[in-house]
Structure formats: structure tokens, C-alpha cells
Write a structure and sequence with these properties.
Helix 3 (49-63) crosses helix 4 (67-75) and helix 4 (67-75) crosses helix 5. By secondary structure, the chain is mainly α. The chain has one domain. The termini are far apart. It is elongated and about 85 Å long. The chain has seven helices and no strands.
Amino acid sequence: MVSRVVAYGPGRDQLQDWASGVKLGEVTTGVSDEALAEKFASVFPHLNERQRRLLAGAEARSLGRGGTARVARASGLHPETVTAGMAELTGGAPVTDRVRRPGGGRRPLTETDPTLLTDLQRLVD
């Protein structure tokens, strides 16, 4: 015997979704995680780090609730990176050719060890 859920009232749609196997609170945008992953895999190789972050942020914002987690899973980016992309889009950061802020990265060894060049020169001589 097959039973059918019949409900009336304000919670009717949620009960119908639950009965059909849709988890409550799940974002149903019609875009599967596989389709998102395919989109990112085809576009990401052509983008730099900043462009990837902005694309991921825009996609997460368009998905709404749960979008950050879905985009992070599909793209392989960290959820904080996706959130940073959303913040950059919202904040209206100035458009520049730079990917990263100035001052980042590893310091030159000659800066961290001022005697390095003379020590190396002594070894060679």
C-alpha cells in the first residue's frame, strides 16, 4: 500500500517537500552542484586570482542562502575566499590591474639577513 501525504495550511509546502525528499532549508535554484563545478572548471583556468574570487562571490550572491557553501564546494575555493569576493563586489573596491595588495609576499633574503651576500661571497672565494 502506498501512502500519500496530504496537508493543508501554512506548512503545507514544507511538508510536501519533506515527503518528496527535499530537505527543509535546502536552496532549490535549479542549478546542480555538478553544473556549478563544470562552470568553474571551464572558466577558472582563464582567470587570475582576483577574477576567480569575484566570479565566485557573484555566483554565491545570486544563489542566495547557502550559496557560499555551494560555491565553495563546487569551485574548490575556501568559503572565506568566496565571502571575500562577495564583500569586494558589495564594497565597490576600485578596479585595478593588481591581483594582490602591495607589500604582500616573501621578503628578500638579503633584507632578512644583511650579511648573506658577503657570507656567500666568502664561500665562493
